[in-house]
Amino acid sequence: GDDQEPEAIPPSWPVYFPRLRFAEDDRRAELVAVLARFFSSEIGFELIKGVRTHHLRDVLVALDFTQLKARADIPDLFAALELAPPEAMLCLRAAIHEVVFNSPVGRRELPHMQIPAPAVKLCRPPVVDVHLVNHPEARVTFRDLRSTLAGKIVTLRGQAVRVSPASYLAKTLQFTCDRCDTPQTFYFTNGLYDEPESCAAPGCRSKKFTPDRDSVKCADWQRIRLQELIEDVMEDDDYDGRGQARFADIEAEGTLVNKCAPGDEITVVGIVEMRNVEQKGSALERERAASQFELVVNALSVTRQRAGDDVNRQPLSKEAEEAFRRGLPNLAAEDAHFGRVSEGWLGVEDFQKEFEEEPAMSPADLEFIVRFTEECDGEQFKQLVHSLCPVIYGQELVKAGIVLALFGGVSKKFEDDGWIPTRGSINCLVVGDPGMGKSQMLTAASKVANKGMYCCGGSGVSVAGLTAAVIKDPTTGQFTYEAGALVRSHGGVCCVDEFDKMQSEHDAFLETMEQQEVSIAKAGIVCTLPARASIIAAANPNGGQYNRSLNITDNLNMSPALLSRFDLIFILVDDADATLDEHRARHVLAPHGVGGVAQLKQAQQQLLAQYAHEDQEEEEARDREEDEYAGAYTQPQPRDNERADNQLAVRRGPTLKQRLRLDLAGADEDFAPLPVSLMRKYITYARAYCFPMLSDEAGKILQDYYVEIRARCAAGADSVPITPRQMEALIRLAEARAKVDLRETVTAEDAHDAVEIMKEGMRDVLKPGGTLRGKGGKLKKSGKAKMFVDAMKRKAQDKDSAYFTTGELYALVDDLQLQIPDVDAFIDNLNMAGEILKSGRLWKVA
Known about the structure:
With 846 residues, this protein is an alpha/beta fold. It has 32 helices and 23 strands. 35% of the residues are buried.
């Protein structure tokens, strides 16, 4: 009878359906019963056995939609998720609540979740929150997120650029009638305050109520501003090249609050809702806002892993398994399965990876990595270098440096509290004349990087846009911060073009490039945001062209503190050369004429042959130059027992530049660059799973080169200061070179390659000769400048006259065999630096 009816009501019903009267034939009650039977079975309980408590009170469980659909034959559930998602989610929560707390299987398998019997009647029942994850069927792009999807479940992937502070949203409040004192519980819609329209007591029509504010029940609430990922924009079929990113507002409640931070890449599964826009101001503005609505996504789950991570559970092919068994670095679980012991840093006790999130890798991706590694055995570096911006020919070592910056070194971080982490990111600066392809290489690097940002200096860049901006949240009115380019590049690469046009923003890079973080102390917000990103910058020299008579500091007008933070500095000079200019012109014209493909290939062969000829002449000139400079510093002679070790520093065989050069008329005739997507997968894989360790032979090679450049710097070569940072840079470059081949040990060959790439930059930075200005514009007497001034002093003593004619200075340059191409500019720079003075038409030493 009526006395038996309350006993038939499931205990979870008033918790999740407080305003509905229970009836066994209600469609929601029937669905809850069916789901409870499914989750009580062995195949269904596997999906919810990971249930756990949240903040000692609420209960949450992550429910995999793909697994649920594969195991559950419940058409009504999936129809409800399609047509009425909020109602379906309440049924799922109620069913899981019944299984966990009120079923024999829950009491047997989850004893730690049970409430003690004496406390059952004293405390309110716990609320189960279900996080619906891995719903690839509902994946939509930001472009397709429109009002037609209202009430539907969608899956969005993007980057959180703004996360509001956690606030509290009122759910229910009790009101008391002013006439009859009848209490009434009122449920708020979307947290908006409202009052009952009339009293619920029979015969009372009062419309005046007094709220009992002590009875309010709230839920944690947070709004997230989500931006579309750049790679998703470019993969869109209708992408028009402008790359305009779109935004979406996400609302998270309860256990989903504080699940991400600005800069995180997240995947959100949620229900699309239309909300009326709140407008404060005049009556006209409020009336106008009454007809305006905004689209928000009410989150059901917020995860940092990318959509489709479950594909890692699928089996690999036999070929891929054999390759991984032979030692190709792979997932830790497969390493354990095959019984391998890691030889790199992962085998060291207490070593912590820089990023714990593992990327989504499908079996097809892993098999591509296996096939690429085996087919290009020993040639991976060459393939990757020429796949980066393939329209730019030549500049192999510059591209090689950028590729190594994309891979990065190994960040050393241990569980020991006293250990200071060392950065693994590689920073690279490309300085050169206009038209050398710097911007194209940076744009290509930002597209290929596993997480890349591109920004161009000038009026469109500010310090707040680079680091973080403190703004007032329009919804809550509280101050919060919005992540800038460096924070959003965390774990990837930030490419900064026109670096010389943003001198007022240079200070923003100092902390990021070394400490790998951004500090904020504004508007009551004091925090430190992670920004472990590689900086790849491009800059034009002062005056438009690089002046070889000045050092790099004066050419760029940058502080030595900032320059010393760059691991690699490349200088590209556009020298006039009739033969090379002719080949370049043919290369540019080839695609625009008849028979473009054949002419383009012929132009490429001629251009690469000319580059090879120039490389040979350049090597010979460099050897002569180093012989001239050999007396500028003294290097300690090794003892007999060290001579054998020092031979490691001598590379035998072709140089890296020669090995990277394409032979389009021979072995590389059928060369084809890797697609951007596959190149990005390979870089992402190496960064996530490969952590090489330095060998003794490689360490000795790096040490010898560091001692050499320190000695040259101490001998007076005015340049970027050579500090222990350069030693760390060499280590990072060698580790990145080993990552390219997916090796777990840095070999001597890797160290040689790292040294050669750094020499390419140091060749002009530490150039022995020319007039080199130091800090404050004072010319330092080093190299040719020092020799010339000293010779003037000796000559003045010999002829008992301090004055020289211009012809005598020309003759002095010839006698010293300085080989200066522009003697007039050389003399003018000495005069401007104050080393020699002009008196009428004569010159004298200052």
